[in-house]
Amino acid sequence: MAFRVSAVQYHLHTITSFDEFAARCEHYIKTAEEFSTDFILFPEFLTTQLMSIGDGQGNALGIEDLPQFTEQYREMFSGFARKYNVHIIGGTHVLRRNGKLYNVAHLFYPDGRIAEQAKLHITPAEVEGWNMGAGEGLEVFKTDKGTIAMLTCYDIEFPEIVRMARAKGADVIFCPSCTDDRHGFHRVRYTSHARAIENQIYVVLTGTVGSLPTVDLMRANFGQAAVITPNDVPFPPKGLLAEGEINDDMIITADLDLELLYRVRERGSVTTWRDRRTDLYTDWT
């Protein structure tokens, strides 16, 4: 009923090859392995770092070029998941489907399976700057440690979709994020706490740090990882099991105990999931 999670505050910087990207990702995975983690979370738009490789003439690649790395990305993280016997949420990667770009979170299982969840809510900047499309449906994913969901950044700001994930059986939301300023960061952070309280779930959150000076929309990053709990005994008073140092290149680790969630849902000082007034408002089941 308990397992360990790690979240990476991934440092974005200019690179020259996919191999350099792979080596950096493996560094974080090896670090998490030293803590015997079961899940490792990378941030949203992780693979935009590949755009800094450029086209050979000194120009950064465009967002439309990212899908060309899909096979390498999937093979790399799938191989790492098997090699290190860990579940990896490989941040998000941009896929092209039916002529449209989608921002897609990937779960890599230790047995080689790969699951996907497209981002469902797209910010105005993603539409205007990159013409991103929105995903069409929510999935939850069963693992040998429990049932999880992957909701990316802006998604966590919508209570309905997290309520749906909880109704489908998710006890943990992994939220890869990428925010460029304090306002965006705190929107995601505060609503992550709200979602944990409303649904009596864990939220594992992380974001990008550093910068990609040649890549549009990725020149500034403001990030901090956190492992967030409901605000009730026996959890920490601030609802935080762990958090990183803002904008540092680092990884955080914490243990999630599902039995505590189930106990609080039944006998907590508040029972927010059980006490929903579905006679007054729609329940997303």
Structure at a glance:
InterPro entries: C-N_Hydrolase, C-N_Hydrolase_sf, UPF0012_CS. This protein is an alpha/beta fold and 285 residues long. It has helices at residues 18-34, 70-84, 124-130, 159-167, 182-199, 258-267, and strands at residues 2-9, 11-12, 39-41, 87-97, 100-108, 114-118, 132-133, 141-143, 146-150, 172-177, 202-207, 209-210, 226-228, 240-243, 250-257.
What does this structure look like?
Helices cover 27% and strands 27% of the residues. By secondary structure, the chain is α/β, with parallel strands linked by helices. It has one domain (2-267): Carbon-nitrogen hydrolase (Nitrilase/N-carbamoyl-D-aminoacid amidohydrolase). Strand 3, helix 2 and strand 4 form a beta-alpha-beta unit. Helix 1 (18-34) packs parallel to helix 2 (70-84) and helix 4 (159-167) runs parallel beside helix 5. The protein is globular. The model has no long low-confidence stretch (mean pLDDT 96). Keywords: Hydrolase.
Structural class: alpha/beta
Termini gap: 24 Å
SSE sequence, one letter per element: EEHEHEEEHEEEHEHEEEEEH
Whole-number average pLDDT? 96
CATH topology category name = Nitrilase/N-carbamoyl-D-aminoacid amidohydrolase
Rg is 18 Å
Oligomeric nature of the chains: single chain
Total number of helical segments? 6
Q: Name the shape in a single word.
A: globular
> So, the CATH homologous superfamily?
Carbon-nitrogen hydrolase
Keywords: Hydrolase
InterPro entries: C-N_Hydrolase, C-N_Hydrolase_sf, UPF0012_CS
Pfam family, one: CN_hydrolase
Family: Belongs to the carbon-nitrogen hydrolase superfamily. NIT1/NIT2 family.
